[in-house]
């Protein structure tokens, strides 16, 4: 199966923005987009709060999809509570939606951090009816994703971390959708293409049809969305390695690290080289990739240091990895802190130590 591709999901909107500014045509549009009528959520389980009147067009609704199993999605809840407090008197109603059953998230909702930290309604959608109404119809597949609606119309779709400026503009009367809708639709169309590529690749990988899988990768690499094309190049490493072409996979890793000026590409290569994808990894290569990521980021990106720490862990250098994770925390932005802290807690347990295979460099 294909590894999780959060790098692609995180980059897609940025690349869509670039294409929108250059006037590139959008071949298809999602059924649910800016200006679409807001679907009426079909939710029966409310472990926190109660169902609002979703038909009240005098209210502004923010429907945010999340999961307790995904750290950024889980941590978005406390930030949404701040927005709920700030804009409640101006008519903002926030609803968090998860496909988990009520019984599965009650321990989280009753925990010290979230019992007082979530100050809006939480609905459960175990049959995914509401997910299909919003996420599927808008071609979204990453969590968290939020939908903002005013007067019964969708005015914005995106990651809750980007909401501050959006809400400020909306409630000050300065919100204008010009350009934003096209940017979103570019991203949604690229995400839909990615989902199709991923579906086809998973089938071919399960069948071990490597040549056919590489042909799909070639189509990805030709995609007009630069982020999707770049993801294809990273996926080629995985396919080559899984098909037994380790030498070619390593040569491609070298090329990606050497020829790219993108720290995130170098970081992803480092993490792949240090992952179980390579049972006998070349940790010297992985270290070079991680150090290149740190250098390209001008030593300012927490996740570049996380990549190096993962290489150090694969080499059995737990104490060194802990120091590198601690360094990454000093650079982390709010959306990265909880993820890094969770990983650091895992690393500090003796069971997370791996058998040394080399001695990676320090940053």
Descriptive terms for the model:
single chain; alpha/beta; Glutaredoxin; globular; disordered N terminus
Structure, described:
The protein is of the alpha/beta class. Among the domains are: 35-176, Glutaredoxin (3-Layer(aba) Sandwich); 245-352, Serine Threonine Protein Phosphatase 5, Tetratricopeptide repeat (Alpha Horseshoe), CATH 1.25.40. The chain is built from 15 helices and six strands. The protein has helices spanning 6-21, 71-87, 102-109, 112-115, 129-136, 163-171, 180-206, 210-221, 226-242, 246-259, 263-273, 283-296, 302-314, 318-331, 334-347, and strands at residues 45-48, 60-65, 92-98, 121-124, 145-150, 153-158. A six-stranded mixed sheet has the order 1-4-3-2-5-6, with helices on both faces. Strand 2, helix 2 (71-87) and strand 3 (92-98) form a beta-alpha-beta unit. Helix 8 runs antiparallel to helix 9, helix 11 packs antiparallel against helix 12 (283-296) and helix 12 packs antiparallel against helix 13 (302-314). The longest helix has 27 residues, at 180-206. The chain starts with 5 loop residues before the first helix and ends in a 16-residue tail after the last helix.
């Amino acid at each position: 199966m294909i590894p999780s591709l959060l790098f692609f999901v995180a980059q897609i909107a940025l690349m869509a923005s670039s294409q929108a500014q250059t006037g590139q045509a959008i071949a298809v549009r999602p059924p649910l987009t800016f200006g679409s009528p807001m679907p009426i959520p079909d939710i029966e389980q409310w472990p926190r709060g109660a169902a609002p009147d979703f038909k009240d067009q005098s209210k502004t609704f923010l429907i945010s999809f999340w999961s307790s199993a995904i750290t950024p999605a889980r941590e978005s809840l406390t930030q949404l509570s701040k927005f709920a407090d700030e804009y409640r008197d101006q008519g903002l109603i926030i609803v968090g939606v998860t496909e988990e059953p009520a019984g599965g998230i009650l321990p989280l909702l009753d925990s010290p951090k979230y019992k007082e930290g979530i100050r809006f309604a939480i609905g459960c959608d175990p049959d995914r009816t509401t997910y299909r109404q919003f996420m599927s119809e808008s071609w979204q597949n990453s969590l968290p994703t939020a939908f903002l609606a005013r007067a019964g119309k969708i005015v914005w779709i995106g990651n809750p971390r980007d909401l501050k400026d959006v809400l400020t503009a909306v409630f000050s009367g300065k919100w204008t959708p010009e350009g934003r809708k096209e940017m979103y639709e570019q991203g949604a169309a690229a995400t839909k293409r990615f989902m199709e590529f991923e579906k086809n690749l998973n089938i071919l990988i399960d069948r071990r049809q490597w040549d056919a899988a590489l042909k799909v990768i070639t189509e990805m690499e030709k995609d007009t969305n630069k982020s999707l094309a770049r993801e294809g190049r990273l996926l080629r490493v995985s396919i080559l390695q899984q098909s037994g072409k380790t030498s070619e996979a390593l040569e491609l890793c070298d090329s990606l690290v050497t020829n790219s000026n993108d720290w995130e590409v170098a970081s992803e290569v480092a993490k792949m080289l240090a992952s179980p994808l390579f049972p006998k990894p070349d940790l010297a290569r992985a270290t070079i990739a991680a150090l290149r990521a740190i250098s390209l980021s001008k030593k300012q990106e927490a996740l570049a240091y996380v990549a190096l720490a993962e290489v150090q862990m694969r080499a059995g250098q737990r104490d060194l990895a802990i120091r590198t994770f601690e360094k990454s925390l000093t650079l982390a932005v709010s959306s990265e802190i909880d993820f890094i802290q969770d990983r650091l807690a895992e690393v500090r347990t003796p069971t997370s130590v791996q058998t040394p295979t080399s001695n990676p460099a320090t940053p």
